[in-house]
Amino acid sequence: MILEAMTAWALDPVPATILRLSLAALWLGAASHKLADPRGFEQALEAYDIAPRAALPLLGALLPFLELALAAGLLITPTRPAAAVLGALVLAVYGAAIALNLYRGRRGLDCGCLVSGARSQISSALVWRNGAAAVASLAVGFLPRAARVSGWMDTWTIIAGTAVVALLYLAMEGLRAAAPRVPRTG
């Protein structure tokens, strides 16, 4: 009975791979953004006012490498479950830090996200996005995969699907970053 229930929840290897590659790309992009502007990231960390100021240089230096490790860990089968859990935990901590500052009424903070060259403010949408990404990370790490032979069409579907997810993510981030600058009417 339990085996049947688990099999019913088994992911087809194609969408599972698209999800896994998309999460790895998310971590890679996040790390790249932080490594490209380490001082800006450290300022964003300082603005959150959660960690002790003395720890900010260390956090600013280590978090990008943790994110790179998470990206690599999702791509390597033996490390995937650990990377999935750690990734979900990191996303939950990021989401909690954003939620705490929203609760404090500090909505003008730069999120420290991967919108390069633009100041992107925190919002409740980021809390939800991090929650959804954390759940996706756990799914990648723990839902069983359906066993089937993959063919060339699967490869192209994975490439196209991952590109579409990345483009949709970037479009949503761009819209979210631009939203505070759009005048409200009505």
Number of strands: 0
Content of β-strand? under 5%
Radius of gyration: 18 Å
Major sheet attributes: none
Helical run tally: 7
The N- to C-terminal Cα distance equals 56 Å
Query: Which series of helices and strands comes N to C?
Result: HHHHHHH
Please state the overall shape, judged from the principal axes of the Cα atoms. globular
- The tally of structural domains comes to 1
Mean pLDDT value: 86
Give the assembly state of these chains: single chain
Structural class: mainly alpha
List unreliable stretches of 5+ residues.
none
Percentage of helical residues? Answer: over 70%
Notable traits:
186 residues, mainly alpha, 0% strand
Topology:
Blueprint lengths: L1 H7 L4 H24 L1 H11 L7 H20 L4 H24 L20 H19 L9 H27 L8
Helix pairs in contact: 2-4, 2-6, 2-7, 3-4, 4-5, 5-6
